[in-house]
Specification:
Layout lengths: L4 H4 L6 E5 L6 H15 L5 H22 L3 E8 L2 E8 L18 H8 L2 E7 L2 E9 L3 E3 L7 E3 L5
Antiparallel strand pairs: 1-2, 2-3, 3-5, 4-5, 6-7
Helix pairs in contact: 2-3, 3-4
Length: 155
């Protein structure tokens, strides 16, 4: 019997799992992050959910690329925010941008552009890189009474 994190979790407590090393594990982790968000019923637009998936795959791939080792992925919900954390065993700080002619090193710029916030903190023996997305609540459009406005809390 296969036990998945989705079948054994109590929602919406933080949910974490270890990722085996190797780039072939990244698509499954990306899918699992999105499945958790859907299961929790986090209010995100289709575009925001796609951006969240992309950020998850970028941060997870970055951890695997630089460590060649397992990493720990955590999805948690804070008031109004969804946060994804990726812990690895490499103490090196997240890399900054490379030269314009280099093809790599753009993952964190992409995360910074798509997520509401991101950062990192040291955690023995390595670090945790995190990013967050705000929940998006819909409210009726106040001027005409039709349609919805994303990012507006209904009164």
């Amino acid at each position: 019997m296969v036990v998945s994190p989705l079948s054994s979790a109590r929602f919406p407590v933080p949910l974490e799992w270890g990722m085996p090393p190797g780039p072939e594990a990244v698509p499954g982790a990306r899918w699992l992050v999105a499945a958790i968000v859907r299961e929790w019923g986090v209010p995100l637009s289709v575009e925001a959910l796609q951006d969240l998936e992309l950020c998850a795959s970028e941060v997870i791939a970055n951890a695997m690329l630089h460590t060649g080792d397992r990493c720990l992925v955590t999805v948690l919900r804070r008031p109004g925010l969804l946060c994804v954390e990726v812990a690895d065993r490499c103490p090196a700080l997240p890399g900054r941008e490379r030269g314009a002619d280099e093809t790599g090193g753009r993952r964190l710029v992409l995360v910074a552009a798509l997520a509401q916030g991101w950062g990192w903190h040291p955690e023995s023996p390595g670090k945790v890189v995190w990013f967050e997305f705000p929940e998006q609540h819909e409210a009726p459009c106040p001027t005409h009474g039709w349609g919805t406005a994303l990012g507006v809390l209904a009164a």
